[in-house]
Specification:
By secondary structure, the chain is of the alpha/beta class. The protein has 8 helices and 8 strands, in the order E-H-E-H-E-H-E-H-E-E-H-E-H-E-H-H. The structure holds D-xylitol-5-phosphate and zinc ion.
């Protein structure tokens, strides 16, 4: 069974607390929070005050996906705001080893994300420092984009590497995930499925989440 992390990017921001209750009741395992700075990606979302507000209305793990140019400057504030996971993009910091250790020191689980054009080889030296790898299956910045199929082989290759490494590192996939491709994704090795539009635009959130979980 995969874990399902609904992305609040597709929630109704004017009724965020209500939408959080709805996904919780529908079976969400984590909440995925997309932080965009208008520089690393061409879109802006929300920051630490909104994450703190979300922390007050749910007990679900908060999975914070930082799509920002300078993650090192922001990890403390997001840790204080209540993040359980902090995912930084491999493309954004030349000192990932230091950054991941700082995230861990803050009591938060560290993860690294790869854009569709970034090679798995970029992770070679830091896999032992990670709790999770996020494979982006769209170019980050917006919800509702089409799944890029090459993510599937990337997940399979990563899964093989992790089996060799012999350390439990989760594989997360984000972008264009739907009940139509979730089985292929879990078969390839994905452990955590992020889905925004597929869940929030669904008429039956509970069955959509159940389909995603079942793979
Ligand atoms: C995209 C974000 C995703 C987004 C996914 O940059 O990282 O988390 O919300 O949305 P869907 O599931 O609609 O592709
Ligand atoms: Zn995301």
């Amino acid at each position: 069974m995969a874990l399902v992390a609904p992305s609040l990017l597709s929630a109704d921001f004017s009724r965020l607390a209500e939408d959080i209750v709805r996904v919780e009741e529908a079976g969400a395992d984590w909440l995925h929070l997309d932080i965009m700075d208008g520089h690393f990606v061409p879109n802006l979302t929300f920051g630490p005050p909104v994450v703190s507000a979300i922390r007050k209305v749910t007990k679900l793990p908060l999975d914070v996906h930082l799509m920002v140019n300078n993650p090192a400057a922001l990890i403390e504030v997001f840790a204080e705001a209540g993040a359980d996971w902090l995912t930084v993009h491999v493309e954004t910091d030349p000192h990932l080893h230091r950054l991941l250790n700082r995230i861990r020191e803050l009591g938060v689980k560290p993860a690294v994300a790869l854009n569709p054009s970034s090679s798995l080889a970029m992770l070679d030296e830091i896999l032992p420092e990670l709790e999770m790898v996020l494979i982006m299956s769209v170019n980050p910045g917006f919800g509702g984009q089409k799944f890029i199929p090459s993510a599937l082989t990337k997940i399979s290759r990563l899964k093989k590497q992790l089996v060799q490494l012999g350390r439990p590192v989760l594989i997360q996939v984000d972008g264009g995930v739907t009940p139509a491709n979730s089985a292929q994704l879990t078969k390839a090795g994905a452990d955590v499925l992020v889905a925004g539009s597929a869940i929030f635009c669904s008429n039956d959130m509970k069955s959509t989440i159940a389909c995603l979980k079942a793979g």
